[in-house]
Amino acid sequence: MTVTVAQSDLRAFIARCFKACGMPTPDAAKVADLMTKADLMGQDGHGVFRLPMYVKRIRAGGMNMTPAFKRLKDRPATALIDGDNAMGHLVMHHATGLAMEKARTTGVAWVGARHSNHAGPASLYAMMPAAENMIGLYLAVGSANHMPPWGGTDMLLSTNPIAVALPSQDFPPVVLDMATTVAAYGKIKTAAQRDETMPEGWMIDREGNPLTDPKRASEGFLLPIGGPKGYGLSLVFGILAGVLNGAAFGRDVVDFNADAETVTNTGHVILALDIAAFADPDEFRAGIDAVWTQMKSSGRMPGVDAIRLPGERLDRVMRERAAQGIPIPEALRTTLAGLAAELGVAPL
Question: Which domains, ranges and CATH numbers included, belong to the chain?
Answer without folding.
Answer: 1-59+289-348 (1.10.1530.10), 63-181+224-279 (3.30.1370.60)
